[in-house]
Design a protein that fits this description.
Length: 438
């Protein structure tokens, strides 16, 4: 019926179209992060529209659509002049392609989608009666779109290169954030019934979100997929995304988050090479924001794929590593000195607060004398020893949604307590925490 514009241009990811390695070979289909980053790069271009190839996909327009929703009773509705906007806020958080059966599986996360429609409706939603027409906006915050289906490939006669095509698509939806409804007119000729119905819908906006999935979002999806397929068919796979896009975008992201979002940069610094696979699994991050764990997994992958020290993004990232390490260890040493002067048994507190993984003690004074890149290399060659049991009771940093950090003033003034907006990160992760990765 009148349902928000849940971004639904989802499947774009599907053919993330070739993601390349340095040798211009398509990414290994098992490399989820490479595929996901490649899909994101392709998505931005596609949504903005490509002159002479495909029109913009934000907003999408739906001239007319009829449907019904069932609660205790049935509500029949018709929408006209529908608009789905907000797709520019969407990004791939998971994308995988399977060479064996030419299928794909994808997840999108959209910061905010808005469905705007003129509606005509008659029937019941829950216990309240609807019999009217007007305008309605449905806003979906942190909305997840899930897609899977089959993809195809063909060699273009024009350039003799492989191109992708979308063959089928099935989808699902998962609202993770707040759903908001704005009904701009009466929904019943009887004012009392109209006021009651509007109040009920304000309290139960998820009913509208569920009703909007089929057939409203389904029809928006058909429009979006058609646009995506048009772009994929027209563009050679090897021109859509390459390894430099993958590395540079990722490193730029890390440069931004290391200084702002990592409450424990030490973890980020040491968890870099393939030798850290086991430590990564043993560290208990249950007291830390889950996004930090995602960031660590992502960081590990990026460092392994980055070897060019002349790349400006690599230099900036290395500088962040070195600065974060020195700053953390300096605070740790200062804390220990104060404890000794006071003769207080507080060294464990210092370690839990500034050196969870024993990096400062392991590297001794080398973090003071080595350059940024040398520090990084040293830690890779001399990984600290981990004790799984050590971390089960370690108190993690404060987060904006914790009991210890509830006021915005406190968050903004503390180095260890950031605002929730700063802490939010949504990035490609591996399959360990995704239902769709089974």
């Amino acid at each position: 019926m009148f349902f928000s514009r849940p971004i639904f241009f989802v499947l774009g990811l599907v053919l993330l179209n070739s993601v390349h390695t340095r040798s211009n070979k398509v990414c290994d289909f098992k490399d989820v992060r490479c595929l996901t980053n490649g899909a994101n790069n392709n998505l931005k271009k596609m949504i903005l529209g490509i002159k002479g190839v495909v029109e913009s996909s934000d907003p999408l327009h739906l001239p007319e659509c009829e449907g019904e929703m069932k609660t205790e009773k049935v509500l029949k509705y018709k929408i006209k002049n529908g608009t789905l906007s907000g797709m520019k806020s969407c990004r791939y958080t998971y994308h995988k392609m399977f060479a064996e059966d030419s299928t794909y599986r994808t997840e999108f996360l959209c910061d905010q989608l808005v469905l705007s429609h003129y509606f005509e409706a008659k029937g019941y939603i829950g216990p309240v009666e609807i019999d009217g027409q007007g305008y309605l906006d449905l806003t979906l915050n942190n909305y997840v779109l899930k897609f899977n289906g089959e993809f195809g490939q063909f060699i273009s006669e024009k350039d003799q290169k492989p191109h992708w095509t979308i063959k089928t698509c099935h989808y699902g939806f998962e609202p993770r954030g707040k759903v908001e409804v704005d009904i701009k007119s009466a929904v019943h000729s009887d004012k009392a019934k109209s006021d009651l119905a509007k109040a009920y819908l304000q309290q139960h906006p998820n009913l509208l979100e569920e009703a909007a999935r089929y057939p409203v979002l389904e029809n928006y999806m058909k429009i979006f997929i058609k646009n995506l397929d048009t772009q994929l068919r027209a563009t050679p796979a090897d021109e859509n995304v390459n390894a430099e896009h993958h590395r540079d975008n990722a490193l730029g992201f890390l440069s931004r988050i290391l200084g702002k979002r990592f409450q424990n940069p030490i973890i980020a610094i040491i968890d870099t090479g393939s030798t850290f696979k086991t430590p990564l699994r043993t560290v208990d991050l249950q007291n830390k924001n889950v996004d930090e764990k995602k960031a660590l997994l992502y960081l590990k992958d990026i460092i392994q794929s980055t070897g060019d020290e002349n790349n400006p993004n690599v230099k900036r990232t290395n500088e962040k590593f070195g600065n974060a390490l020195r700053t953390r260890c300096e605070k740790y040493i200062e804390c220990k000195i104060k404890c000794k002067k006071k003769k207080d048994p507080c060294e464990n507190i210092c370690q839990n607060k500034y050196d969870d993984l024993n990096v400062c003690e392991t590297t001794k004074d080398k973090w003071l004398t080595k350059t940024n890149r040398q520090v990084y290399n040293y830690l890779k060659k001399n990984p600290p020893q981990y004790n799984k049991n050590k971390f089960t009771s370690t108190k993690g940093p404060k987060w904006a949604d914790s009991d210890e950090c509830k006021s915005s003033d406190e968050c903004e003034s503390s180095d260890e307590c950031k605002t929730s907006d700063e802490c939010k990160i949504e990035i490609p992760i591996n399959c360990e925490s995704s239902d769709s990765c089974n």
